[in-house]
Specification:
By secondary structure, the protein is mostly beta strands. 0% of the residues lie in helices and 52% in strands. The protein has one domain: Ribosomal protein L33 (Rubrerythrin, domain 2). The chain contains no helices and 4 strands. A hairpin with a 5-residue loop joins strand 1 and strand 2.
């Protein structure tokens, strides 16, 4: 039997303060949701961004 491959899924990082979709990543499904501090161009400062699927 052939091994089944899990396809990479596209996730988006959404700014928690303004709600903009600023970053996108491709990664394997599963695992914990990302919450990282990234730069928000609209607010012009670093804010917390959370993972969200579109």
């Amino acid at each position: 039997m052939a091994k089944s491959r899990k396809k990479a899924e596209t996730i988006f990082l959404v700014c928690e303060e303004c709600g903009d979709y600023n970053y996108s990543y491709r990664r394997k499904p599963g695992g914990e949701k990302l919450r990282v501090k990234k730069f928000c161009p609209r607010l012009r400062k670093h804010t917390v961004h959370a993972e969200k699927k579109k």
